[in-house]
Input
Amino acid sequence: MTASVEAHGYAPLAGKNAVVTGASRGIGEGIARKLASRGAKVVVADVNLSAATATADACGNDSFAVELNVADPDAVRDSVSDLVDKLGHIDILVNNAGINRDAMLHKMTDEEWDAVLAVDLSGEFYMCREIGTHMRGNGYGRIVNVASASWMGNIGQTNYAAAKGGVVSLTRSIAKELARKNITANAICPGFIDTEMTRGMPQHLFDAQLDKIPLGRAGQPEDVANLVAFLASDDAAYVTGEVINIGGGYKL
Ligand code: NAP
Output
């Protein structure tokens, strides 16, 4: 048990197995820790195994790390097969892994376009297909796909916005397909969250983003994690196919 479960005795995810991608740091780490604090065993899936192991150790609940590149369909298939053998059931999938390669349209290279689409859109599709198929057999599942406020369109992010818009449409489609199997699927759209992804911005752009947030601060990974923990729980059993902003009022 994690310290939080011990302290509060609130464990709505006890007995659940969760897979969180890109969870070695940033928002994914916050989600992994939160799900564990609510009682789940968490598989921390990331390209960076040593950092993922540190997150899994912090989670407790017999959580563990796996090295996984979500953009590699064969690796996803093999890894999910191994996880099903090991865990027996996967109840919660959080597709969080993502990258950005921002550039204005006239400067964006094929490589920048392809890299972002491969991880941010195809990666979520591969994970949904493999784990969604497993969940169908179990007759239970909670899928949370991390999109972004940028899906509405953003300067310098044609690749990222297109991928995240694809995640929204993917999620709405699988929500309809999987509903009859007692599986929910929702997309969340973080606004401006304080992680390495945003800390790499020039200061004047960082400050300009803060000006767009009515609540007056950048979000923290835990802010996003609180929403994911709700969507992953049985309290959200009647919520599916939704696209939910989490940004302190942030609008592009
Ligand atoms: P982050 O700090 O850059 O963390 C992303 C994590 O994903 C890293 O651990 C990274 O590993 C991992 N990753 C990258 N490519 C991967 C792959 N192919 N397979 C598996 N893992 C991979 O990003 P973040 O800010 O926490 O963002 C998390 C998610 O939220 C992303 O989907 C992002 O698009 C979305 N989001 C973020 C914000 C924001 O303001 N931060 C806003 C809206 C949406 P490495 O250590 O190797 O890089």
